[in-house]
Amino acid sequence: MEELAHAGEASEITPELLKLDSCRITSESNLPTEEFMMRFFGRPCFPRKDLTSITGPAKGGKTFLSSMLMACGANTAEDNRRMLELERVAEQPLKVMWYDTEESKQTTKHILANRVFQMAKGQDLDRQFFVFNVRAFTWQERQEELQVAIRTYRPDIVIIDGIADLLPDINDGPKAIELIEHLLQLADEYNCNITTIIHLNRTGEKSNLRGWLGTVILQKSYEVFVCEKVFGTSTMSVELSTSRKTSLDERMYYQVNDKGIPYAAKRPDTQPRNERGQFMAKNTDKTEAFNPNYLIDSPQSEQGWEWNLTKLFADAMAGRSVMGYDDLKNAVQQLSNIKQKQYYYKVFEDAESKGIVKKTYDRHHRIVIIMPPR
Length: 374
Hints:
Radius of gyration: 24 Å
Number of helices: 10
Strand content: 15-25%
Order of helices and strands: HHEEEHEEEHEHEHEHEEEEEEHEHHEE
CATH class of the largest domain: Alpha Beta
Shape: globular
Strand order of the largest sheet: 7-6-8-9-3-10-11-12-13
């Protein structure tokens, strides 16, 4: 009753209340506009005071993209602010920090001198780059020294390659949350963009960044770039797969010359042709044909058929309410006669987007699959 008696009275002004009130947003709040340092296909990206993530499978080109970002950002030559489809917004060069946790010192230097410096143009590039190899540090030291580096050198863009080495275990949820919150605070306090590089899980799905750390990064990042090698070719691709404001269908394709420098390439044609140059079906051997029991006619589709996804995944689940990701993949591939795992990932993503299957986590934070009631 005492609480009711004081209802409506002014609250006591406390430091906590003042701190909270300073964060209040109204329709008339006078806020600075977001500042983006790069464009990708003309779309703004790499904002200050926020996080960006670069992900992809092993050897998928993540460090190539970060090298392009470094060269594009720090290029001091006039009218040369572009690397393929990545373009610096400001005329003045940026200060870029590369915080390398993975490579040897010799490899870090080789990438800097023989790739980044060859792509970048201008003079005194070492003044624009702040490159640190911290592979020999402990994970605690890597966290501590990162803050020292940002506070001391005040870079515009910080590239952490790779973020997983700032934790003892990528599946330590509380530590992952604490780390990403700390990075957000650093980005805000020092007015920079912090770009994290992290592997995809073995599933290869674009939304499946490795470990609990990857889950937190996906939730908190402003945008996520996915790098991968086009299957069966020497062509690499970069896709802006997730962004809070930008929807982009284009991909950047490139190849690497004998000096290790990327150059623009067209989207590869992976469909085989016969001796007269005519397109052929990818699977002409009957033993490689898909199981017709899981195909349905679809005149509007390019190939004239589509997967019966509900039947396929229901049969693979075989009455189970939950199934491990890899177990389900093996069952679906065996039933459907899908041979290539990359193609399976596309089929799974299609089923997931239609709500036929859903990813969740068990109590050990392992990915499992369920089929929601329909």
